[in-house]
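Holo prediction. Input below; ligand is zinc ion.
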Amino acid sequence: MKAAFYTEHGSYENIKIGILPDPQIDENEVLVRVKAFSLNHLDIWVMEGMYPAEIPMPHIFGSDAAGVVEKVGKCVKHVKPGDKVIVYPGISCGVCEKCLSGQDNLCNQYFLLGVLNNGVSAEYVKVPGINVFKIPDDLSFEEAASIGITYTTMWHSLVTRSNVKAGDVVLIHGGGSGVGTAGIQIAKMFGATVITTVGDDWKVEKARQIGADYIVNYKNLDFVDAVKQITEGKMCDIVIDHIGKETFQGSIECAKRGGSVVTFGATTGGEATIILRKIFGKNLRIHGVYMGTKGEVAHYLQFFPNPLKPVIDSVFELDNVQEAYKKLLSRQFFGKIVVKI
Ligand SMILES: [Zn+2]
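Structure of the complex:
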């Protein structure tokens, strides 16, 4: 099969296009003909060797995809060849206490497709049968490929962990990112008021179009001051911080007493200075989030394509996959960057 892969850690410029063997499935697995995959920052960390585990080489990368079922193992009954499916990347053992109680992202063996095994940047990918979900009606492969990591992480952060509700004020950093766009839609769906940040003026109107109530260009205005002004000093019920080092202390300042601050991603670095007094002094809850559960996916998929609908920035051909990663690193995008195969 045709695949994009790399044979050593380093920049996206190491990515090669070539022919690798087709995956062989066992009786519990599904073979999917990949039609589209979307990019995540995780792909870059794995590519650059920042992920704290040995990555098998040559490595087919990428975690989020959508495509058509090509073949199913004999124990897989919920999909059949020809079905259009989302390839959901969260893989767990399936038999431990956490898995059996529906908390598969707390499984000791939990990992994401495309990290410790071959991912989705190829014509075919194999996954456990329980990792494919039928694509909701009226979603393209490109849109369906953009759901997995972003909507699961944001649903788990806002709904499951922070209990978002009507009237809440939610700050979501990076409104133009994949998680940012997903988070704005989910928070609005629950009737919250959304404040978001962007780093470019051209993103302001786009953030407004997907429902953000207040958009702050953090390059022109300190976001903590902006949140104080917007909320008249009341601050936020929930703050979603996937930026990390550059913003985390500010995020704590932006939370009101008893509020929640969620951390994941940490795209600017994971070592932040934190003033503990501000955490206990305000009775804050700090939530670390790594994905969510398959049960949450099965639940939130019913809200596509309305009110939830992935925002696609751009679509690249597989042969131009290096350009796609270059764009991801440039931050000059709004929504998800997708590669079609
Ligand atoms: Zn398990």
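The chain has a mean pLDDT of 97. That is the main takeaway for now.
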